[in-house]
Write a structure and sequence with these properties.
The chain is 40% helix and 16% strand. By secondary structure, it is α/β, with parallel strands linked by helices.
Length: 383
Amino acid sequence: MPTSPTPPSAGRRRPVRVLTLLKGLSRGGAESLALLGARHRDRERFDHSLAYVHPAHGELVDEVRAEGVPVSCLGGGRLWDVRWMWRLRQAMRSVDVVHTHSPVPSVAARITSRTLPLGERPKLVTTEHNVWDSHHRFTRFAEKVTFGMDDAHLAVSDAVRRSLPPARRSQVEVLVQGVDLPAVRSAADRERVRRDLGVADHEVLVGTVANLRRQKGYPDLLRAAATVIGAVPAARFVAIGQGPQEDEIAALHRSLGLGERFALLGYRADAVRLMSGFDIFCMASHHEGLPVALMEALALGLPVVVTSAGGNAELVTDGDEGRLVEPGRPDDLAGALVALATDDTARKAHAQRSHDRGDTLSILDSVRRHEALYRELTGRRDG
């Protein structure tokens, strides 16, 4: 017979069992944060496991398992395949908390939990990583109908919280996820990176790290880059990331004649190390929750030029860490980049403010808050 969640009176006798549920385990923002959470968890008080749905998206499986966290693929090529929901039901019967990080698995966990006897139902926690409008309308409808089944609801930025249905916003806690500050900063290797990329000392390297998806605004970035390259002979660009728009972006790159002045590097496991060679970090996103790459750029002390999409404006104040521009305006993006690329003094000032902002973005803060929440929900009061 499945083991029921331990009642509060027995809370000290074993760790809180937490199942993290994701749509996939590829190298995206939510997935990378799940890996960091596994790495920095309290291993004595919490027993973590992780499950994901799509078998084709498991790039981080080995890294999560290396942290001592069991990983299972629920299988199924379709999100609404009831077979993986049955396997989820079995997994949910042996844990105290299910923490989901993607809308469709969140809906599935809520519905599945209601098929379990009341005494076997785990507590449900959802983290919203993207603004509501970025989801398919059917997904939004399903989320809205099942939202109230959660025991706790988190959002990675206030912009994400404000995008939710008005009646639900007061129920949502904003929790900035953060990054592994020591790991990010120790990866910096500026001189070698620039040497490997063939960037001269006098050249200004503008870089981005983002998956090649529509929400990231790559066409705007490439068009802005064409303007900057024409105006600033010392400017060079580099983009790190992969995704479904690879062919489209490569074709636009060719049509704009960007050549070697804009390098498309694809996926790189050492993306953070490469970022340390940038003079300016740039993002042209149309939609964002709170991008991990931007938090890493701030942790590295990079001047930034980013759009005000989503939570970006909660991390960057225009004129402090760098420049904010409206999404979908490549001319404005180009103007901000030209101004910063030609002003060494401004870049140095922005770099210091970025570093200071980065000091506030430790993953440890969010991990400890998650753990406190799990204890609260399961009745644990052991500090």
